[in-house]
Structure formats: C-alpha cells, structure tokens
Amino acid sequence: MKACAATDVGRERVVNQDYVYYSLTKIGNLPNVFIVADGMGGHKAGDFASRFTVETFSELVRLSNEKDPITIISNAITDVNVRLLEEADKSADYTGMGTTLVVATICGNKLLVANVGDSRLYIVGSGIKQITRDHSLVEEMVSMGEIDRQEARTHTQKNIITRAIGGYDTVEAEMFAVDLEQAEKIVMCSDGLSNMVEDAEILDIVKNNTDIGAAVECLVRRANENGGSDNISVMIIEP
C-alpha cells in the first residue's frame, strides 16, 4: 500500500486551515488511517480546529479498546466533537470554530469511510465515483431538485455546510463501506480541490500519472491554476 498527500494555502488565502494525516501502519485496532480536515472560523480558529480534531481523533483511535473499525471511528468522532466544543469555550478567539472531517481505513479489500461536512473521498478506476455525500446547503438543494449539479458548483452559498465537527453539541458522521477492486485508487480532498477541479479532470490527472506523488502535485497545481480560491488538500492512496 502507498499513500501521498499535500496541502497548499492556495492563491487567495493567507492561512492554511486544512490538515491532512495518514498512517500506513496500525493505530490502535485500526490497520491504517487516512484523514482530511478543513477548518472554519477565524484564521486562528480554523487552523486550530482542523489540527486539534485530527490529532485528537488519532489519539482516541489509538486508545480505543473496541475491535470493530466502524465503532472505533464513530466513537472517536463523537468524542472529538465534544472535546473541540470544550476548547471553543476556553477562548473568545475560538468561538464558533469547526471543521469538516473525512476519515478512511482499509481492511483487506474493504474501504470504510466516515465523513462530516463537504470534504470528499473518491474512488478512481476506469471512472471516478464520489463515495462521500456533501453535507452542504447546495447539496440539499440539488437533492430537492431546486438546482442542478452544474449550478451547485458556482452557487453563492456553496460554502455553507450543514454538518461539522464542533458545529453542534452532537454530530452524526455518515458512514460508507465499499469493496475495492484491483487497480483502483482512492482520492481524498478538501473542497479547495473539488470546487476548482471538475471530477472528470481529477480522473484524467490520476489516470495519466501512474506515480501518485506526481498526481497529487498535479492536482494541487491545477486547482491553483483554476483560481486557487481556497486552501487545497489532496491525498491519494494506492491500496
């Protein structure tokens, strides 16, 4: 198994509020873990929220006595939400902070995913498939037929998310389980990539760069070339 990740401040932001982390070896009872978080709030708050959430989540996983991966991840998300809210109460600088979170682990040929917010996980093979579902206002509008998918990409309320770590007293992650096929790769990203680079272009770049490190660099570069309006984080996993 291989993985490569990069995060970039983009062209318009001063502070990078994204945070990425992965481990190809065991953490607690998870065989591996891959995480992308996109913080929100003031510059100080968003940066803190994503880093604190990823680091605390990883520690909670390491200390968990549970055996079932879904239970481990679900419990850690519930607990980290509580801890981030506690941190927010400690300083006015942190009031209202939160973060998206997409987490994955690979158990044999099974990919288990949890997400809160609008950071994404795709599977790329002969085509590209978004596994996660955006927890955002525009996604709800698309589901209700109020706007189409193309309109959603440029909608003025594109950045309003409906679930976040630290957003509410309780949080419910959406969980997914996928059987992986040979030659498939996994792409995880913040919306700084998915808002700037169309899915078809992500597919093209991943397929045309057999080295996942080169693909990650190319995706970040393309997001900046297309405007770089937000922080950009990309992770590619080659099971």
What is the CATH topology?
Answer: Phosphatase 2c, domain 1
Total domains? 1
Question: How far do the termini sit from each other?
Answer: 5 Å
CATH class, anyone?
Alpha Beta
- The succession of helices and strands, N to C, reads EEEHHEEEEEHHEEHHHE
Average pLDDT number = 93
Please state the CA-atom Rg, rounded to the nearest Å: 17 Å
Main structural class: alpha+beta
Name the assembly state. Answer: single chain
Proportion in helices: 25-40%
Number of helices: 7
Shape by Cα distribution: globular
Under CATH, the homologous superfamily reads PPM-type phosphatase domain
Q: Could you describe the 3D structure shown?
A:
The termini are close together. 34% of the residues lie in helices and 26% in strands. The strands form two sheets. Strands 2, 3, 4, 5, 6 and 9 form a six-stranded antiparallel beta sheet that branches. It is globular. It has one domain: Phosphatase 2c, domain 1 (4-Layer Sandwich), CATH 3.60.40.10. Helix 6 packs antiparallel against helix 7. The protein has 239 residues and is an alpha+beta fold. It has seven helices and eleven strands. Strand 7 and strand 8 form a beta hairpin.
Short description:
The protein has 239 residues and is of the alpha+beta class.
